[in-house]
Write a structure and sequence with these properties.
heterotrimer; A alpha/beta; B mainly alpha; C alpha/beta; A: D-Maltodextrin-Binding Protein, domain 2; 2 domains; 5-stranded mixed beta sheet; B: mainly alpha; MetI-like fold; 0% strand
């Protein structure tokens, strides 16, 4: 007689645990926006807890590829998500673009050289760029410089960083003369760095998001992605400088 | 061994060697001073000097960035006088590795100096030998085994240093991208075979260093009593 | 010169944890061979170290053959290396990493390097022969017997032609049978060289053999002095 009661209790506990946690791996530039999105999602869906894991998109991909239990992956560029799809790590039917961002160049507040366009970078000593092999902002920067024919001139000055925050920190400290970051990050740091100019890019910076294939909470993951694209989610993202995809 | 791996290896060796030389002077010097002098707060100073061993390397890297960066007093002076900055250079990486490895040299050095019989130093003094002569002729020959053990640990630690180095020196291939940073970036970029090659290389070098050390100073290094 | 004038007044308080020891000795003696006799803890070693310059008294003075080695009032304190006395430690304090030849020649060489392991030197060779150590000149102290170690320590002390020889319990580390032999040797040596010596011991036999003047120490004070043959002072 005890056994059915025990089974019911166990089922209730595991079912409750199942509904509770959603692990979202998001690119570093989404940090502040997703912190707020996570809290408002939890408020709208009581009983669900959103756990946030930030890093460079390439690093996040590696984690999932080695078995990290993420449910949602949001990267800063299409290429990383394409790699994830090629390795069958995400569910392609759930993949959506959810925001747009802009690439900008920032310089120290007390910088002496006026920067108005990409060619001005050739007059500088050090420029912080994310590692193109694993950091999307670095890939965008390299693409923009290649499109302007300036990559060979600027790459010897490049200090490779692991993520956007590191680049911003070096600019804030005056260790580099300029850095390629996202407009959203520059806005976040506007009292520590000077926004020099927007970088022209042939293709816009669009962030994709997708449910992770191995996730145990597929439905919850899709619900979160829908929330990102809903008016409420977009309003929050807009507050941090992101624009509609 | 391919090109980038060889470059990273040579850089790691250069940085680790420089860091160990820095600690040879600073760590051994500090060990000697604390072994021989008696003052209030000596134990507090000892704890402070041991701190780098327990602090996270990224915290140490942050402090070094604040102390050596262009906005600091020292960094600004270097920049203005010599046009030189420690940040993003292999010299900065060497300093980061030296700070991290300092306690590994300082503590064994202090213990080694304390283990030298004070009477031997007194005997030398009465015979007319004191100061630096006394240090090089009596104290150091009797303490060198313990000191060497510490230096080798510090060298191996410097070979593997990552957190502080990354913050202070960045990751510039050929200039500051040491083996451990190269491994990290290879993993980040999904280049597993390169990562494996670099890991094997780093491990082989460290094992070789420790084996050579065991030959040079048998007995105490390997744990057995001479 | 072989008679020594030793004039000292040494006041020193030593603290070890809860315990306190006060040394308060003074004496003016002259003689070739002076012995400080007393039980362990009486302050003999501290006194000898003060004379050698290995320990600075709190107050007082030390004069050897008219030369002031230490004077608290005039702030004179000659470093050990300048006093030209020789000190033989109780367990000899031979340098374990140097062989016999290098130990004996240690004080003759100035600078940052020790004498070479096989380097011949006139004075060193003389003393090695005099003490019968030539055969083991290349051996390390760990490989020597007790008597050989003592002779090495003595040779090392004498090679620099000191003005006085200070000996800290020179025979206590030896077994009984060896002690008498070594006493004879030291006796003969001192008489031949005519180097004044100060010897500290707890063994009355040593005092009997070597004490032209015997100062009895107890609890940090000189309690009596005798000339020639020594009588045990009343406790």
């Amino acid at each position: 007689m005890l056994r059915p009661a025990l089974a019911c209790a166990l089922l209730a506990i595991t079912a409750h645990a199942g509904a509770a946690d959603l692990l979202v791996s998001a690119a570093s530039s989404l940090t502040n926006a997703f912190n707020e999105l996570g809290s408002s999602y939890e408020a709208a869906h009581p009983g669900t807890k959103v756990l946030l894991n930030y890093g460079a998109s390439g690093a996040l991909l590696q984690q999932i590829s080695k078995g990290a239990p993420a449910d949602v992956l949001a990267t800063a560029d299409q290429e990383t998500m394409d790699q994830a799809a090629a390795q069958k790590l995400i569910d392609p039917s759930g993949r959506r673009d959810f925001v747009k961002n802009t690439l900008v160049v920032v310089s120290p507040l007390d910088g002496r050289i006026a920067l108005r366009q990409l060619s001005d970078l050739t007059r500088l000593g050090r420029v912080a760029i994310g590692a193109p092999a694993s950091v999307p902002v670095g890939r965008y920067a390299k693409k923009a410089l290649e499109e302007a024919g300036l990559w060979t001139a600027v790459s010897p000055k490049a200090i490779t960083t692991q993520n956007v925050r590191q680049s911003l920190d070096y600019v804030a400290r005056g260790e580099v003369d300029a850095a390629f970051v996202y407009a959203t990050d520059a806005a976040q740091f506007k009292d520590k760095v000077h926004l020099a100019f927007t970088v022209p890019l042939a293709t816009a910076v669009r962030y994709p998001v997708a449910p992770v294939q191995a996730s145990a909470h597929a439905m919850e993951a899709r619900r979160f992605i829908d929330y990102l694209r809903s008016p409420a989610g977009q309003a929050i993202l807009g507050r941090y400088g992101f624009t509609q995809p | 061994m391919n090109g980038p791996a060889a470059i990273a290896l040579l850089l790691s060796l250069k940085v680790a060697l420089a860091a160990t030389c820095i600690n040879l002077v600073l760590g051994v010097g500090a060990g000697f001073i604390l072994a021989r002098s008696r003052f209030i707060g000596r134990d507090v100073l000892d704890s402070l000097l041991t701190l780098p061993m327990v602090m996270p390397p990224t915290v140490l890297g942050y402090y070094l960035l604040v102390l050596l960066g262009r906005r600091s007093a020292l960094g600004a002076w270097l920049q203005d006088s010599f046009g030189f900055s420690f940040i993003f250079t292999w010299q900065g990486a060497a300093i980061a590795a030296a700070v991290v490895g300092f306690p590994l040299v300082f503590k064994p050095a202090r213990a080694a100096f304390e283990s030298v019989d004070g009477q031997l130093e007194q005997a030398a003094r009465v015979l007319g030998v004191s100061g630096f002569s006394l240090f090089f002729r009596v104290t150091l020959p009797l303490a060198w085994r313990g000191i060497l053990a510490g230096l080798l640990l510090a060298f191996a630690r410097a070979m593997g240093e990552f957190g502080a180095t990354l913050m202070v020196a960045g990751s510039i291939p050929g200039k500051t991208q040491t083996l451990s940073i190269a491994v990290y970036e290879a993993v980040q970029a999904g280049q597993d075979s390169l990562a494996n090659e670099l890991v094997v290389l780093t491990s082989a070098v460290c094992v070789a260093v420790l084996l050579i050390a065991g030959r040079l100073a048998p007995g105490r290094i390997n744990g057995a009593r001479p | 010169m072989s008679t020594m004038e030793l004039d000292f007044a040494i006041h020193k308080t030593l603290r070890s944890g809860q315990r306190r020891f006060t040394l308060d000795v003074d004496a003016r003696v002259s003689g070739q061979r002076i012995v400080l006799l007393g039980p362990s803890g009486a302050g003999k070693s501290v006194t000898l170290k003060a004379i050698a310059g290995l320990m600075a008294p709190d107050a007082g003075h030390i004069r050897l053959n008219g030369q002031t080695l230490f004077d608290a009032a005039s702030r004179i304190d000659l470093a050990a290396q300048q006093r030209n006395v020789a000190y033989v430690f109780q367990d000899y304090a031979l340098f374990p990493h140097l062989n016999v030849r290098q130990n004996v020649g240690f004080g003759l060489k100035r600078g940052w390097f020790n004498p070479g392991a096989g380097q011949a030197q006139a004075e060193v060779d003389y003393w090695l022969d005099a003490f019968g150590l030539a055969a083991m000149a290349h051996q390390l102290p760990a490989e020597l017997s007790g008597g050989q170690r003592q002779r090495t320590a003595l040779a090392r002390a004498l090679v620099a032609k000191p003005s006085a020889l200070l000996l800290d319990e020179p025979f206590s580390a030896l077994d009984e049978a060896l002690r008498e032999t070594m006493r004879d040797e030291l006796d003969a040596l001192q008489k031949r060289l005519r180097i004044p010596m100060v010897l500290i011991t707890h063994d009355p036999a040593d005092a009997a053999r070597f004490g032209d003047v015997v100062l009895h120490l107890r609890d940090g004070k000189v309690v009596c002095r005798t000339l020639g043959r020594c009588e045990e002072a009343a406790p």
